[in-house]
Give the backbone structure.
Amino acid sequence: MTDLAVRTRERTSTLRWWREVLYVLAFYGVYTAVRNTQGSAVVSARHAFNNARHVIRWEEWLHIYHEEAVQQAFLGARRFVQFWNVYYGSAHFVVTAVALIWLFRRMPERYPLWRNTLAWTTALALIGFALYPLMPPRLLPSSYGFVDTLEKIGGLWSFDSGAMAKVSNQYAAMPSLHCGWAMWVTCVLWPASRKPWARLLVILYPLITVFCIVVTANHYVLDAVGGVVVFAAGYGMAVLTVRHVAPRLARAPEGESG
C-alpha cells in the first residue's frame, strides 16, 4: 500500500458525520455573511452596471451574447419559466448537499479531496464576488430586453422583496457558483454512474444549470465559464491540501517532540 493510500485511510477513519455537519454549517455561515455584505449593500449600482457592460462587450466579441434571445424564446411558457425559477433557487443547494452526503457514506476515501474542492471553489468564488461585482441581466435597464422572471412570472421567493432584498447580494454573478457546484456534482457522481441514463444525466447536469441561469436572466454565459474556472482552481488547491499540507500538519507534533 502506498503512503498516499495509507494517509487516505487514516483520514477517512477519523471522519465523523456530526463533525462534517458542523464544518459545513460553519463554512456556509461565513460564506453567506461575507457574500451578502460585499455586494449590493455596499457596491454602487453604477459600478456593477459598468462591469456588466464589459462582460457584454466580451461576449459580443466572442459571438456568444445570446442570453436575451434564449430567454425571449421561452417567456411565453409561464409554467416552464416558473419551474426554472424554483430550480434556480433550490437545486443549487439540494443536489450539492445530496451528493456530499452520498460521497461521505458511499465513498469516504474520496470524501476529503472533494469536500476540500467544494470549500476552495466556494472561497474562490467569494473573492470573485468581492473583486468584480456584476449586475446580472435581470437587473439591467429595460432597453437590454431582459426580464426579471422571479419578479414578473414568480417562483417561491423574490430577491427584490422584503428581508431577502436586504441580505441578498444581487451583484454576486461572477463567477456563477451554480455552475461551479454543478461541475463538482458531476465529478463526484460520475464514478458511481454505471447505467447509461445515469451517466447522461450526470453529464447534462452542468449544461442544464447553464440553461437555467440564462433563461432566468440571473447570469451571463461568461459567468458560467467563471464558475468552471474557479472549480478547476478549487480542485487544484484541494489536491495540494490533501497531498501536501494535511500530511505536514499531521506530522508537526512528531517533529516538535523530536
